[in-house]
Each structure stands twice: as C-alpha cells, then as structure tokens.
Design brief:
The structure is a single chain. By secondary structure, the protein is of the alpha/beta class. It has a single domain, classed as Rossmann fold. Helices cover 31% and strands 25% of the residues. It contains six helices and ten strands, in the order H-E-H-E-H-E-H-E-E-H-E-E-H-E-E-E. Strand 9 and strand 10 form a beta hairpin. The protein binds S-adenosylmethionine. S-adenosylmethionine binds next to loops.
C-alpha cells in the first residue's frame, strides 16, 4: 500500500488556503488535480481545509484525484470514504467531529458526503503524459515525482504546465526542487516553499 496519511503536509495545505483560494474563490468552477493521491487522505485533507475556509462556495470545487494504483482498490476506498480510526487519530478533534461519522462498522468512520461528492477518483498513469483535464486552477503532486527518473520528472512537469490554466498553481512536496529545465515554466509563490505559479510560454 502507498504511504500516505491525513494532514500529512499542513504547511502546504495552509499555503493553498492563503495564496490560491483568495485568487479563485469567486469562480463558478474550481478544478483541482491531485496527482498520485494514494488511498485518499491527501485529497480529503485538501477538501477539508478548503471547506473550512470557503464556506458555501466550496460547492464550486472539484478535486480530480488520480493514481496509477497497483492494488486496484483506491477507487472503492476513495469513493466509499471509509477509514479505520487508526488512520484518523491525527485529525484535530473539532475537524474530526465535523466531517466524520460512525457507519456501523467497529472502529471505522466515513467522511461527510459533501466531501465525498467533491473528490472524484480516476485511475491514471502520470507517465502517459496525458493530462486528465485542461484549465486546472491547481495541481497537487506530492511524494510521487521522486520515484521517477529525472527526464520523466521534467516531462511530467511540462505536462502539468500544459494542463494548468493561465496563472494556475502547482504544489509539490517540500523536498522536491524544480529541475532547472522547467524553472522558466513556474515561478515561486512564496520563498522557501514548493508552491509555484504557471508562467506563460514566451
Ligand atoms: C508515497 S505515495 C504519496 C501519496 C500522497 N501524494 C502523499 O503525499 O501522501 C506515492 C503515490 O504515487 C503513486 N504513483 C507512482 N507512480 C505513479 C504513476 N506513474 N502515475 C500515477 N501515480 C503514481 C503510487 O501509486 C502512490 O500512491
């Protein structure tokens, strides 16, 4: 099983809340791609943070969560939104109480329907270099590119650049630096963080 957990990278979630959301919150459609989402804790953590900060405009958000998923089970896990309590222990108490409820299975909780509706799963291989959508407002891709060869990383990042809308955002894990071949395609949003903004091709 892929390694992941809820609220794994709170710093990036807060950067998205503080820098991306103010820019896009008035939109009718806000399309986000979580590439390499594993079993769902990452897209659901993002959905929770967005719901908390956006209120009713959260209904305009769609998170397309994708993974190559060698187990073949991520789709049913994410669509069902049911997780053992063991995986939910880190979630702050107030948030846990607002967004999770018991569903009859001992020690398991299901995430709120509003969040399940927001996250749409699809199996997808990033190395196909085919974007799942165009004109995305934000792409989140964390702890995935490190598994690829350098040339593959460059090609995937170029594909992300194509898939983003003008001025769209890209979030990588803290330790993932942009290869120099794509540094002209993205500009940092804040210093010392891996949140970038698309720069148009010159
Ligand atoms: C370490 S997990 C990271 C999960 C999540 N992004 C996080 O940071 O918590 C890496 C994920 O990348 C996925 N992955 C690996 N190669 C991939 C590929 N070529 N296309 C899409 N996903 C891939 C794996 O299946 C796994 O779920």
């Amino acid at each position: 099983m892929a390694f992941t957990y809820f609220f794994r990278d709170l710093q990036t979630l807060h950067l998205i809340r503080d820098h991306v959301i103010p820019d896009v919150r008035s939109r009718r459609y806000i399309k986000i791609w979580d590439a390499g989402c594993a079993m769902g804790p990452e897209p659901y953590s993002l959905a929770i943070v967005l719901r908390e900060s956006m209120g009713s405009t959260f209904r305009n958000v769609k998170i397309y969560a994708t993974d190559i998923d060698e187990s073949g089970h991520f789709g049913e896990i994410i669509t069902g939104g049911e997780y053992p309590y063991d995986q939910l222990k880190r979630i702050p108490k107030g948030i846990f109480e607002r967004y999770f409820r018991e569903n009859g299975k001992p020690d398991h909780f299901v995430i709120a329907e509003e969040l399940r509706r927001c996250v749409e799963y699809q199996r997808h291989d990033l190395l196909s270099l085919e974007p799942i959508r165009e004109n995305l407002a934000l792409i989140v891709c964390k702890n995935v590119l490190l598994h690829f060869r350098k040339s593959e990383r460059v090609n995937v990042l170029r594909m992300f650049h194509r898939a983003l809308e003008r001025g769209g955002y890209l979030a990588l894990e803290q330790t993932q630096k942009l290869p120099w071949k794509v540094t002209e395609l993205f500009e940092p949003v804040v210093a010392n963080a891996q949140l970038f903004r698309k720069v148009e091709d010159r």
